[in-house]
Amino acid sequence: MVDKYGQGETSVYKCRSCDYEQEIRSSGVHVSEGGSVMVFSSEDEFHCPKGDSSENDQLPSKCSGSDHDSSHEGDPGPGASEEQLNNAGNEASKEKTLVLPKRKKKSNVEKSLDVVFDKFKQSAATDFERYQKLEEERIKREHEFRIKQMQIESERRKEERQHEMNMLRMILSPQQPPHGVSSGNNFNNPVFYHPTYNSVDPGNGNGNDITYSNGDATYFKL
Questions:
Q1: Largest Cα–Cα distance of the chain, in whole Å?
Q2: Which residue from 60, 130, 150, 165 puts its CA 20 to 30 A from 112's CA?
Q3: Which residues is 122 bridged to in the sheet?
Q4: In angstroms, rounded to a whole number, what is the distance separating the alpha carbons of residues 32 and 164?
C-alpha cells in the first residue's frame, strides 16, 4: 500500500493567535499506535475553534494557522509572548516519527505447525504421484484385457459364420445317393417279382403245396 499511495506524514499545527494545536496528517498511508492502517487522499485542514470556520481560509488574521505550512511549524507570530516562543521552540525540536507495524515473531507452536504442514504437503505430493502411477497401470491392464477379449470374440464369431456357410452349402448342393445305389430313377426301371415253386417234403406235408417267394418273404398256400 505504501508503494501505491505513498507514506503519509504527521505534523502538529499551532494557531498563531492562540495556543490551540491540531495534528495534521498528509495524504498517504498512516499507521496508528494500535496497528491500524489508514489511507488519506488529501491533507487534513486546520480549523481553529476560536476562529470563524467559514472565514478561516479568507481571513487568516483571525486564525493564521489555516494556511500554515508544516515547514513553518511552531513559528511564533510577531506579537507572541515568551511562553509562546518557548512552546514554539519545543514543537519545532520534536522529530517527525513514523510508526511502523512491528512484525510479529512466530512462536514455537507456529513454527512446529509450519514444519508439520510442509511435511504433509511433501507426503501428499508423493502419495498422489504413487496413486497416479498405480491407476495408470490398472487402466493399461484393463485395456489390454478388453482387447484380448475382443479378439477371442471375433475369432469365435468368425468360426460360427464359417460353420453356417458350410451348412448352407450342404443344403443348397444336390444330394448324393448312398454308396452302392444307382443314381437312376427307380420309376423308370420297375422290379418284377417272379414266384418260385418249392416242393414240400412228402413226409412233412402235401406234395401239392406251393410256396411263393419274392426274395424278401415266403408265402405258403393255405
A1: 194
A2: 130
A3: none
A4: 96
| Half-sphere exposure at residue 67, Cβ-oriented, CA atoms within 13 angstroms | 9
Q: How far apart are CA 8 and CA 30, in angstroms?
A: 6
Question: How many Cα neighbours within 13 Å face the side chain of 106?
Answer: 8
What amino acid is encoded at 25 in this protein? R
CA separation for the pair 37, 142 (Å, rounded) = 61
Nearest to 132 by CA among 143, 121, 140: 140
pLDDT digit string (tens) for 186-198? Answer: 545 554 445 554 5
d(Cα 133, Cα 135) in Å, to the nearest integer? 5
pLDDT in tens, 78-107: 445 566 656 655 555 554 444 555 566 767
All three cell numbers of 10, joined, read 504527521
